[in-house]
């Protein structure tokens, strides 16, 4: 497709551009970026189609930052079911992505975002440190102990870890006497975990795994649930494999701070993401509790969570303890720590 025809086909809105005439724009783009780069990005823009809500802005950023094609998609509704959302800014992460906020539950989420297949590639190729498995697990010991406390207090004997990476928590749980297995979307991480840690791991999204129904006492997901494409389907899949009266334990990054940053910024500004890339969902205690309840879970506890690592760790540990004490005295006290745990029981 010729560049000028591509511009017409894509209906680029150039009324705010000093280069309004495409016959003038194309030569200028060729001169600045080179014909091959311009044609390549116009082709990518055509492949994205209606997913790109501002083609002119997308083309400008794609040429400036030399995007390689990576598939994106729009999210039309919040997991709570509301379609009333508003833009809260744009940012770059392999593509031009956006932030939105739900008017009903206040959840901050990414849209447009990378597709599930693109996310899988990001995790397999860029997320995991395959050279230092020992450190990967060691720095999470505090987290594992924190979650184990929640499981042991509820008499859990069989646990399944969703988003297990190499399976360090699975190994930790087995060493504490539990029957444990897990899954991850990265086939490479699963293979490495099986070979080097000797744990039972399954490759693929939980929604696509043929696991026995009602076969575990609890499902855990530690700093992984905010990556899943469809949280409602994920919780349904978790509920299927948990026995009646069993539990789900989620450790999540606290989206309270993301909401503050998003509301402080301009709606159309391009800058740093308010969620840590590539997180898709900025759950708060309120929004995850609402989602759990509408998917068949009864929320039992929501508390400040232990941190993994920081030079300020002694102060953070004290802050976690104080925040937990405040929540015990007043259940509506806000959780102000960077991460939080939520525990819910399957309703029968």
Dominant shape: globular
Order of helices and strands: HHHHEEEEEHHHEHEHEEHEHEEHEHE
Strand order of the largest sheet: 8-7-6-9-10-14-13
CATH superfamily of the largest domain: Vaccinia Virus protein VP39
State the CATH topology of the largest domain: Rossmann fold
C-alpha termini separation: 57 Å
CATH-scheme architecture of the largest domain: 3-Layer(aba) Sandwich
Number of strands: 14
Report low-confidence residues grouped into runs of 5 or more. Answer: 13-20
- Helix/strand structural class: alpha/beta
Q: Round the Cα radius of gyration to an integer and report it.
A: 22 Å
- Strand content is 15-25%
CATH class category name of the largest domain = Alpha Beta
Tally of separate helices: 13
Provide the helix percentage. Answer: 40-55%
Average pLDDT, rounded to a whole number, is 86
Taken together, the total number of domains comes to 2
Q: How would you characterize the largest beta sheet?
A: 7 strands, mixed
Salient structural properties:
348 residues, alpha/beta, Rossmann fold, 13 helices, 14 strands, 41% helix
Concise overview:
The protein is α/β, with parallel strands linked by helices and 348 residues long. The protein has 13 helices and 14 strands.
Describe this structure in words.
With 348 residues, this protein is of the alpha/beta class. The chain folds into two domains: 1-69; 129-256 and 277-346, Vaccinia Virus protein VP39 (Rossmann fold, 3-Layer(aba) Sandwich), CATH 3.40.50.150. Helix content is 41%, strand content 22%. It has helices at 3-10, 22-33, 35-48, 55-65, 116-127, 133-138, 141-152, 168-175, 187-197, 231-241, 256-264, 285-294, 313-329, and strands spanning 72-73, 85-92, 96-102, 108-110, 113-114, 158-162, 179-184, 201-203, 216-222, 242-253, 270-271, 281-282, 297-304, 339-346. The chain has a seven-stranded mixed β-sheet with strand order 8-7-6-9-10-14-13, sandwiched between helices. The relative contact order is 0.11. The model is unreliable at 13-20 (pLDDT under 50).
């Amino acid at each position: 497709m010729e560049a000028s025809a591509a511009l017409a086909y894509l209906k680029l809105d150039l009324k705010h551009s000093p280069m309004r005439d495409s016959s003038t724009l194309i030569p200028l783009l060729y001169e600045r970026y080179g014909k091959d780069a311009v044609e390549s990005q116009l082709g990518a823009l055509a492949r994205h189609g209606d997913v790109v809500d501002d083609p002119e802005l997308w083309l400008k950023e794609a040429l400036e930052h030399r995007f390689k094609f990576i598939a994106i998609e729009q999210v039309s509704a919040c997991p709570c079911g509301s379609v009333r959302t508003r833009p809260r800014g744009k940012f770059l992460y392999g593509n031009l992505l956006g932030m939105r906020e739900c008017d009903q539950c206040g959840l901050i989420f990414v849209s447009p975002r990378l597709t599930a297949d693109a996310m899988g590639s990001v995790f397999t190729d860029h997320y995991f440190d395959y050279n230092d498995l020992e450190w990967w697990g060691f720095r999470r010991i505090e987290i594992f102990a924190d979650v184990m406390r929640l499981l042991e207090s509820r008499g859990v004997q069989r646990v399944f870890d969703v988003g297990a990476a190499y399976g360090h928590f699975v190994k930790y749980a087995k060493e504490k006497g539990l029957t444990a297995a897990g899954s991850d979307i990265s086939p490479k991480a699963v293979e490495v975990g099986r070979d080097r840690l000797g744990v039972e791991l399954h490759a693929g999204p939980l929604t696509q795994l043929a696991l026995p129904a009602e076969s575990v006492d609890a499902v855990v997901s530690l700093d992984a649930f905010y990556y899943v494409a469809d949280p409602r389907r994920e919780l349904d899949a978790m509920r299927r494999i948990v026995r009646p009266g069993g539990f789900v334990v989620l450790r999540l990054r606290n989206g309270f701070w993301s909401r503050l940053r998003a509301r402080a910024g301009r709606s159309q500004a391009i800058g740093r993401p308010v969620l840590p890339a590539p997180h898709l969902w900025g759950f708060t205690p309120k929004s995850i509790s609402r989602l759990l309840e509408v998917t068949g879970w009864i929320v039992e506890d929501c508390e400040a969570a232990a941190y993994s690592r920081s030079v300020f760790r002694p102060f953070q540990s004290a802050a976690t303890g104080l925040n937990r004490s405040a929540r015990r005295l007043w259940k509506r006290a806000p959780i102000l720590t960077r991460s939080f745990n939520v525990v819910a029981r399957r309703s029968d």
